[in-house]
Structure formats: structure tokens, C-alpha cells
Specification:
Two copies of one chain form a homodimer.
Chain A (H helix, E strand, L loop, with lengths): L8 H7 L4 H9 L6 H13 L6 H7 L5 E6 L5 H16 L3 E6 L4 H13 L4 E4 L8 H10 L2 E4 L9 E5 L1 H15 L4 E5 L5 H16 L6 E4 L6 H15 L6 E4 L2 H13 L13 E3 L16 E3 L2 H18 L7 E5 L2 E3 L5
Helix pairs in contact in A: 1-2, 5-12, 8-9, 10-11
Chain A binds a DNA duplex (30 and 30 nucleotides) through helix 2 and helix 4.
DNA sequence: AACAAAACTTTACACGCGTAAAAGAAATTG
DNA sequence: CAATTTCTTTTACGCGTGTAAAGTTTTGTT
């Protein structure tokens, strides 16, 4: 590697013995130049350390190769994991992923979108905060930038939505719990941030109804994203008060369940299916940690990879077509029952 | 808000009745224009939706207002959390945070730095992968871009390093464990990815030596970032084989401990300090989940906020000074003993 | 009111690359 | 080998902003 510093494409064209427009063509699509030319450029690239100035490139393009990925909360391993998978797919497709977390804050979510607008992304993959989201402004953003929503939907917003079929997933686990023991009560947040939570509640009610059982809702007060804390606090209270009519708790998501399990443990209530167990607890999502809880958590698995792949490919399709979709495309994936120790 | 689309600064200057250079000055520093002028611009900003083109802005600047934040693994809540804190600080200081995770992959880490170089960041906050990192290339990057390392150090690389004092922290917990029960064995990975792990091992050996106890190392085979899995697998093996000479296990980090706790639970060994407990387990880091494990995990807390603040402010200092530090600045923070149920 | 200082306007050039048009060179074809 | 096609070069302009220099207006001070 020569030490000579290459300042710009002009200089790089000079040292590789070609003209600047040819170099430009090469960087936009290496296969668009003659094979021999391509080799000459690649050889020069090995000798000299040059990469086109990203700002100059994108100044002229109407849109860039950037793809925004926005999730509600990066410190939640569930979103961190799905973001990781999406990021990989975006890279493989030759785009530049730009990952942003909203920290559970609707203003931050809008800021993220505003900041994305500044870098003129080719498209955006957005998991909205949910109930708290500023739906109008998100909708306005989606008018400007092709956007695919995932995990949590906003009616009519975005080119497409990819998520989980709550009715199927909750149905599955309610059915399982009823077959193997007492019908479950449903443990959730009083004011869930996530619209999926509402769907899950409805799904629970419907499933119980269908099986001829009386539903029981346990609604924990509390705001924010400290789900484990809320699950723990309310779980402790429930166990202490002891006015449950069932020994089986289905939690709206795994993080609540993790908090609940902790509460049960501290209260000395054994959770599980064997003899001597006082409670059964199940969750929903197959959170990365749910296989290490005590006991391990029975839950409904979201297929991270399927959701990520479908979202990303839908977006790539829209970007390549260069036109918006005729109608909003909605995809629901089935959840999978993961039987572990807790129920 | 008028609907008229503002294309560029020229047009915005026109509608606000000022010249373009004045507008440019305003966007670079609102306080650099007369108060009345500033108000005029701000009023215009409320009427028209204009924001300068980021690519055009940065094309001329030798460096931008971007600050890169690179962590080894975003799906690890520990790093997600510290990244979140740093991100907030960077924003408050008027910079644009660019968050990148290396997915535990040294190539990805280098890619991240390469990509950062393209956006000419004012500085970078980097938590290296550790043992696997391509130290030479990271060093080369740090020559070009002011970089502050945190969490895990690379000798002589970067303007500064901010981390935890392993000897103090491990000393603290070893001391506590020895005072309150049997001296601990040290549970770690055979080939840790993180150099902190080596320091922690040395610190353990030193602390045990000082207290006149015989150290015992338990080294789990396994690679990668699935620490819980490794902790679980090796923990199960240890418990099954039963050739421990102590009932107390100090884990090199909380994630290993989480796996170990799960193994103990499944083996029917009660962990804790009370009567009827077969094992004591302690960790290190105060991982966000360690307060919800069963039992809750006794550990050494890293002061996330202190590490984040010190790293960020050191970097801001270097950026503002415009010159590199005379000598590499190294800061270690003390860990804090967090006594919970497990030991 | 006079004056200096501060702020603004005008003008002009720079940044690094995309891209179009026309002309020239090289590769491919029959 | 000539004709044709494909690729490359030359030339030139545009993108939206930073920024410097020189001239003009406004502001604040005495």
C-alpha cells in the first residue's frame, strides 16, 4: 500500500490511469465497466487507500443507499435481537443500515424520523412505539419515505406491516394451558404502550370464551418500559393478596413474566408443572432470556428471522420498483409454542 | 406552516428576507447573529419546513458534528444500556450520535470503523471487542480520528481509556464472600473474549492470596457471546460432577452467573445465603437483569453513568481543543458491592 | 448627532462527485 | 478487414452549502 494520500476521485483517476467519470461509474456499479478496466481499478484500490466521499456522493443522488431501522427500545433484548437480524439483511442487500432506538420516548421517535429524513434514506423499517406514537407525524413521514412497519402496526400507515398473529399465538398457548391444567388468568399492563398488548388481551378473551372458561384479567398499574419491575411489583402483590381463582398465569409478554417469576420465587411459591408447584406461568415472545429463567419460561416464540426477512424484503421490493405499493400489504406470522419448565 | 416547499438555503433566505450567508451563520451558531435577525429566522422556520441539506453541509467541513459510538454487542443489555446513556450525552452536547454494534465480530468492528471514517466523525467512543479485536487497525483508526476507549482497553491506543478498577471491584466482593462464608471459586470462560476477564482473574487470584486462601479456577470452554448458555452448560456439569471444594462461586460476569443460576435451579440446588442453601453465587457488572434472577444476584455494580459521562466528556474536550492529548489519560472507576439474595 | 463597531449583503469561489453529450478508442462481429 | 457495437475520455455543468473579502447598513456609544 503506497503511502501517498489520495484526496479525491480526480487524484485516484490519475494514479489508476483512467478518467474520473469511469471511476465514478465503477463505484456505482463495478460491473458497468469493462473487465480489464475493472481489474485496473481494483489493483489501484489495493495500492492506494481511497474511498469516495460519502457526502459528495449523496449530495446529487435523490436518494441514497441508506436504510433506517428504528426500534422503540434498543436496551430491550427482543428489539436488539430483531434489529441485529435486520441490520445483517440490509447490509447483505448492499444498503447501509442506520440503526436508531427511540428510548421509549415518542419525541425521540419523531426526532429519529426527522434525522433520517435529513439523510434521504432509500427506505425505513420502523417498529413504532405504539400507543404513545405520534401517529400523524409518522404517517406524514411515511408519505415521504417508503416505510415498512413491523412488530406493531399503525392503521393504514406505511407500505406494509409485518407482525405476529396474536390470535393464533395466544390461542395456541391458552389452549395448551387449559388442556394441561387450570385455565389461565391474563396478566398484563393496565395501560400497555404496545398495541399488540390490546390484541393479545382480545385474543385471550376470545380463546377463553371459545373453550367455555371464564376469563380473568390482572392489570398491573405502571408506565414506561420497565416491564420486569412492573411484573415483579404487581406479581408480589397478587401472590401476597392471594385472591387468584386459578393457579395459572399467562403473561402478556415475557418481560412481565420474568418479573412475575422473580416475585414468585421470592414469595417461596414454586412455579412449574411438577408436583409441589404452586403456580404455572407462561409468557409470550420467546425473549432471549426466557430460556434461563427459573424455571425456564414456557412461551410463544416469535420467528425473529421470518419477521425480519419479510419486512426487509418487502422494503427492498418497494425501493427497487421505485413506486409505492398499490395497497398496504399486511403479513402475520404464526407463533410457535415453546414448552419449557414454567407451565 | 405554509405549504410552499423550500428547496435550499437560497430559497429559505429569500422567504425570510435575509441573505444566504447570514442563514448559514445562523445554522452553524444561532447566537452568532443579531437577536432580531435570529427571531426573524426562527419565525420563518415556523412558517416553512426547511432544514439544511446534511450532505452539502458536511461536504466542506473537514469534520462533522458526528460522533461514533461502537460497542461489541448491542444485543447485550449491558452494552445497550451504556450506549443509551452515552447517546443521550452526545445529543445534549450538540453532536449527532451514530450508534454501531459489532455483533461480536472483529471484522464487523473494523467495518464499523471504516464506515465511520467515511462520515468524517469529530470523534469516536469505542468499546473494543477485546482479545479478538484487530488491534493494529484500531490503532491506525485512532491515529486519524480522536477516539476514547471504554470498558475494555487496548494498550496505548486512543486518546484515553475509561473503565472499571477490576482489582478494587473483585477485591471487594472476594472480601465480602470470604467474610460471610466459604472462600469463592472463580468461574470464568477458558478463553475470554474480553481483556477485562483476564484482569478479573488476576484480581481474584491476588485477593485470595492476600486473604490467605487457596484460589480455585473453573474455566468453561466455549466461544462467542452466548455467555448465559456457556454458564448454564458448564454450571450443570460442575454441579453434576460435584467436585467443588467450596459452596461459593464468583462468576467473572453476571451473564455467566445468570446461566449458572439457571443450572443450579434445574439441578435442584438452592442458591442463597439462608438455611437450606447449597450454593452461593455472585457476579460482576450489575447487569440490568440481575435484580430479577432467582434468587436476585449479588454482584459488583459498574457505574454506567460515570463511565459514560467521563468517556464522553473526555472526547468532547479533545474535540474542542482541536489537539490530541499529550499523554493517554486512563481513568478507573470503583465498583460498588450490590448485596442481593444469591450470596 | 457623530462615530466606531457590529452585523449584514453582495459577490465569488470552493468542495467532491453525479451525470450528460460528444467525440474518440477499443473490442466484437461477420 | 471493415463495420458495428461497446466502452472510455473530454468537457462541462449542477448539487447545496461553507466561507472569505469587500462594501453597506444598522446598532450602540458618547
Amino acid at each position: 500500500m503506497d503511502d501517498q494520500k489520495i484526496k479525491n476521485m480526480e487524484e485516484f483517476a490519475a494514479v489508476s490511469g483512467l478518467s474520473r467519470p469511469t471511476i465514478s461509474k465503477f463505484f456505482n456499479d463495478p460491473s458497468s465497466v469493462r473487465k480489464t478496466t475493472r481489474r485496473r481499478i481494483e489493483e489501484a484500490l489495493e495500492r492506494f487507500d481511497y474511498r469516495p466521499n460519502m457526502y459528495a456522493i449523496n449530495q446529487n443522488r435523490r436518494l441514497t443507499k441508506n436504510i433506517g431501522i428504528v426500534v422503540p427500545y434498543l436496551a430491550d433484548p427482543f428489539f436488539a435481537e430483531i434489529a441485529r437480524v435486520i441490520e445483517t439483511l440490509v447490509l447483505e442487500a448492499g444498503f447501509r443500515p442506520v440503526l436508531l432506538g427511540s428510548h421509549g420516548d415518542p419525541e425521540q421517535e419523531i426526532d429519529n424520523l426527522e434525522n433520517l429524513r435529513l439523510i434521504k434514506p432509500a427506505g425505513v423499517l420502523l417498529a413504532p412505539l405504539g400507543r404513545l406514537s405520534d401517529a400523524d407525524r409518522i404517517a406524514a413521514f411515511c408519505e415521504e419515505v417508503p416505510t415498512v412497519l413491523f412488530d406493531s402496526s399503525i392503521d393504514g400507515v406505511g407500505e406494509a406491516f409485518v407482525g405476529l398473529d396474536s390470535f393464533q399465538g395466544i390461542g395456541l398457548i391458552v389452549d395448551y394451558l387449559c388442556r394441561t391444567g387450570e385455565p389461565p388468568a391474563f396478566f398484563e399492563m393496565e395501560k400497555p404502550t404496545n398495541p399488540n398488548a390490546y390484541k393479545r388481551r382480545s385474543a385471550y378473551l376470545a380463546a377463553m370464551d371459545e373453550l367455555g372458561h371464564t376469563p380473568q384479567l390482572i392489570q398491573a398499574p405502571g408506565e414506561g418500559w420497565e416491564f420486569e419491575e412492573i411484573g415483579f411489583r404487581e406479581g408480589s402483590r397478587i401472590i401476597r393478596d392471594g385472591n387468584l381463582t386459578t393457579d395459572t398465569i399467562l403473561c402478556s409478554n415475557d418481560r412481565l413474566a420474568i418479573g412475575f417469576l422473580s416475585a414468585a420465587y421470592q414469595a417461596g411459591k414454586k412455579v412449574g408443572i411438577g408436583a409441589g408447584c404452586a403456580l404455572r406461568v407462561a409468557g409470550h415472545d420467546d425473549h432471549p432470556f426466557s430460556r434461563y429463567t427459573c424455571p425456564t419460561l414456557t412461551t410463544v416464540a416469535q420467528d425473529y428471522s421470518a419477521i425480519a426477512t419479510k419486512s426487509a424484503e418487502t422494503l427492498f421490493g418497494v425501493i427497487e420498483a421505485g413506486t409505492r405499493l398499490d395497497s398496504r400489504e399486511v403479513t402475520f406470522f404464526d407463533g410457535k409454542l415453546i414448552m419449557r419448565g414454567s407451565a
